[in-house]
Amino acid sequence: MTQISASLVKELRERTGAGMMDCKKALTENNGDIEAAIDWLRTKGLAKAAKKAGRVAAEGLVGIVTKGTKGALVEVNSETDFVARNEQFQKMVAAIAGLALDAEGDVTKLAGTTYSGTSQTVEQYVTEMIATIGENMTLRRTAALSVKSGVVSSYMHNQVADGLGKIGVLVALESEGKADALAEIGRQIAMHVAATNPIALNIDGVPAGVLEREKGILAEKNQGKPAHVLEKIFQSSLKSFAKENTLLEQPFIHDTSKSVAQALKEAEKAIGGAIALKGFVRYALGEGIEKAEDDFAEEVKKAAGG
User: Fold this and answer.
1) What's the half-sphere exposure (Cβ side, CA atoms, 13 Å) at 197?
2) Taking the CB of residue 188, how many other CB atoms lie within 10 A of it?
3) DSSP string spanning 231-244?
4) Structurally, how many domains does the chain consist of?
5) What's the CA gap between 102 and 124, in Å, rounded?
6) Are residues 158 and 258 in the same domain?
7) What is the model's pTM?
8) 8 Å CB contact between 219 and 267
9) Which of 44, 137, 171, 225 is a good FRET partner for 280, with 20 to 30 A between their CA atoms?
10) What is the pLDDT of residues 16-45, one digit of tens each?
11) Which of 193, 216, 245 is the last residue in one of the domains?
C-alpha cells in the first residue's frame, strides 16, 4: 500500500477544501495520485463543498454545553449570518457542542468523533452540510473546563437559541459548597467575562509578550530615566494593569465597589464553603478571522459595466 504523507494530505485539502479524512481516503484509494484523488472527491459528491472552501467563513455560531463539573465551547463558522439563523445549522452546532464535552478541548479529536445518529465523523458531516446549504462552514475551535468538585457555569450573549449565540463564556468554580448558589455566582462571573474580556485570571497568567509590550510603552514615555527607576515605574503600573485586565482584580460589573476576588470571598458565606476560581474561557464569534473588506466603489463600477 502506498504511504500517504501528511504533506500530501495537506496539499489535497488546500486544493479542494475537502475534509482531512476525506483527503486521506481519496489519496489512499488512488495510490497517492493527487489528480486522481481530486476526481475521486468530485465523484463522491464533495466537489460542491470544495468550491466553497476558499470563501471566508467568519459568521456562524458559538455553542456551549455544561454538565455539572464539566463544560465545553465550540465555534462553527459560516459565511453569512443568514445561515447562522438556519435551523439545520443551529441543530448541527448544538450537536457538535454536546460531543465537545468528551473531546476535552481537542478540535482534531472532536472533528474525528462520530456525529450523533450517523456513521460519519463530525468533519464529514460538516462537509456534507456545506453541500446541502451551499456555504463554506468550518469547525474552527473548541475548549473545555472541568473541576473535581463544584460547577462549570456558562453565559451566552446574543443568544439565538438554547446554548447558541455570538459570545460564549465558561467559568470553572471549585468548591464543596451548595451547587445551586455556586452555579449562580458562576453565571454572574461568566456575564462579567463576556462584558470585560479579561486577558487572564491574574497577573501571573498574562503572557510575557503582553507585559513586555507594556514595559516598552512605559520606557518610551519615560525616556532618559535610569533602568532602576523604569523598573519601579513598571512594577507600580502592574497594579493598575491588573485591575483593568485580569479577571480577579477587575471591578465586578454587578457591584463595582468590589473586585471579582472580593465578590467571590463574600459569596462563600452563602455557599457554605471556600470557592476557587480555576479558570475561564471566552469565545467571541469570528474574533481573529480576517474578513474580506468589500470595495463599494469597485462594486458600483462592475455593476455599471465599467
Assistant:
1) 5
2) 19
3) HHHHHHHHHHHHHH
4) 3
5) 18
6) yes
7) 0.75
8) no
9) 137
10) 767 778 788 889 999 999 888 877 876 765
11) 245
